[in-house]
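Question thread 4412

I'm putting together a teaching handout and wanted feedback from people who do this every day. The idea is simple: show students a protein as raw sequence, then show them the C-alpha cells that encode its fold, then repeat with a second protein so they can compare. Below is the first pair exactly as I plan to print it.
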Amino acid sequence: LAIARQAYALRRKRAAIFGNPDLFGEPAWDILLDLFIAEGEGKSVSVSSACIGSAAPATTGLRWLSVLADEGLVMRENDPADLRRVLVRLTPAGQAAMQRFFEAVEAGS
C-alpha cells in the first residue's frame, strides 16, 4: 500500500512540476491506484470521486471507469447509506492484479 501511495503522490508531483498534467495522462492507472489505496484504507469511493482521482475531465473519468468495468477490474454498486450515490471499487480480479503489480515492484521485477 505504501508503494501505491508513493506512486500516486509522485504522479501528482510530476504534473505540478511540469505545469501541465495533460502531458502525463493515464486516467485508468490513476483510477486503479486511487481505488487500490482507498480499499487498503477501508474507504469507499464514489463514482464522482473516482473521476476526480483520474486527474482528467469527468467525462474522461467516466469513460475509463466503463472501460475498466468492461475489463472486469472495477465494479459499481449502490451506496447502501445513500441510494442516490454510486460507489466504485476494484473487483477481486482488479484487486489481485494490483497486488501482483506492487509485489513485483517491491521484488524489483
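The second pair follows. I'd like the answer to focus on this one:
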Amino acid sequence: MESKNVSIIDFFPPRPAAAPTIYAYASTHPDHAGLLKVGYTERVAADRIAEQFPSGLNPYRIELIEPAMRPDGSAFTDHDIHRYLRAKGIKNPTHEWFKC
C-alpha cells in the first residue's frame, strides 16, 4: 500500500486573509432619512462605504463597523443580518435600508 505524506494543512487549512465585516451607516439623502444601510465587505469598511458616494462628498455617518465572525470562527454576511432584522419586525422599506 502506498503511503501519502499528509501535512497539518490537509486537516487545518490556513484561514483566508479576508476580514469579513458588517457595517451600517446613515445617509443624509432625504430618501434615506431615518434609515440605516446595512452592508458587508471583506475590505476596509470605511473605504467600501466611501465608494458608494463617488462624488467625494461625505453625506453619511458611519454607525457600526464590526467583524462578521461568529465565536466558532465562521463568518456571516449582511444577508444574515437582513433576515434577522426582518424577523425582529424592523422595517425594511428598500433593499439594504432598515428603519433602526
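Top answer:
Good format. For the second protein you could add a caption like this: Residues 78-87 form the longest helix (10 residues). The mean pLDDT is 88.
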